[in-house]
């Protein structure tokens, strides 16, 4: 879906915000492996609105 990965805009109750979803770096102790999903880290730079 459109919100499964990356940056997307989200609206609720007349307000709009941004949502960022990444694959992450680690794995669960219950499933200590990653299949077809490389680890990733994201650097987000936040700037104030004018």
From TrEMBL:
Taxonomy, superkingdom: Bacteria
Record's protein name: Metallophosphoesterase
């Amino acid at each position: 879906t459109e919100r499964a990965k990356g940056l997307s805009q989200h609206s609720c109750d007349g307000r709009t915000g941004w949502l960022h979803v990444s694959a992450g770096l680690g794995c669960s102790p219950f499933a200590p492996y990653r299949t077809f999903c490389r680890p990733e880290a994201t650097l987000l730079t936040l700037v104030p609105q004018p």
